[in-house]
Amino acid sequence: MAPLGDGGAAPAANNLVVSFGEMLIDFVPDVAGLSLAESGGFVKAPGGAPANVACAIAMLGGSSAFLGKFGDDEFGHMLVNILKQNNVNAEGCLFDQHARTALAFVTLKHNGEREFMFYRNPSADMLLTEAELNLDLIRRAKIFHYGSISLIADPVRSAHLAAMRAAKAAGILCSYDPNVRLPLWPSPDAAREGILSIWKEADFIKVSDDEVAFLTKGDANDEKNVLSLWFEGLKLLIVTDGDKGCRYFTKDFKGSVPGFKVDTIDTTGAGDAFVGSLLVNVAKDDSIFHNEEKLREALKFSNACGAICTTKKGAIPALPTVATAQELIAKAN
């Protein structure tokens, strides 16, 4: 795909995926296994799940755009430049002169799992209004992708709902990865209620096993609990099970695809690399929802992309290419 340069118009072929929501700076400790207080230094890494997905799509040769708001500060301009450098269409990006770009401090445990401490009170991404939405960009998409962090507070919550309505009215596929971040919500119950409030608007949903446990208050390994999240009209529900791989559910078939063993350093962005790679394939050919063989092939590729992303610190710097994903798959065969 030709570079989009200065956030120019997206390619005309309608494989465009528009990601909506937050992009922020993750500060990741330079030594794993220490608390934030104990950490001596931090590596600055661009992050924010919807932006990670947009970059993952572009990195894999897909067509992607990001829609969100940044502080008119050095970090905000740095992040939008990172989108452009990664060939993500940035015409839906806005700057706010009165609010800062969000920051997150991420604690890395020894196993690569993370804990978050956020600075956004309120950050610019929370202040996007419905009137500022680039609806033309949304209507040019084949897929509209979003998370749940933009549902926490107005005005961005109203903007999110309006963007989703515009996408649905235009017949665009809606993709939802809730990305539960409990510290950002007023309470766990508010998080559960907020996340489920738009559940039935989606065509495709990806949740982690931990998120299934949180949303259903039950065991994620019990299929009955997973299927309580299914609804009539959903095309595909995916549950990611960490390095074990993933499970998939459609109205016609279900199954699981094993993951790949790698040396995990940092799991940040692994789910986003997984989602981005799957959306690249859905955008190219949405018969994947009805063809189990094609879906399994795509999920194997997505598992490889997610695994590769855990082998480096940060999300966007660790995103895979088609070549690195194919290499991992070939090595495992």
From TrEMBL:
Keywords: ATP-binding, Carbohydrate metabolism, Kinase, Nucleotide-binding, Transferase. CDD domains: bac_FRK (cd01167). The keyword Transferase applies. One of its GO terms (cellular component) is cytosol. It holds the Pfam family PfkB. This is fructokinase. Gene3D superfamilies: 3.40.1190.20. Its EC number is 2.7.1.4. Belongs to the carbohydrate kinase PfkB family. It catalyses: D-fructose + ATP = D-fructose 6-phosphate + ADP + H(+). It comes from the Eukaryota. GO terms for molecular function: ATP binding; fructokinase activity. Residues 15-321 form the Carbohydrate kinase PfkB domain. Pathway: Glycan biosynthesis; starch biosynthesis. PROSITE patterns: PFKB_KINASES_1 (PS00583). GO terms for biological process: fructose metabolic process.
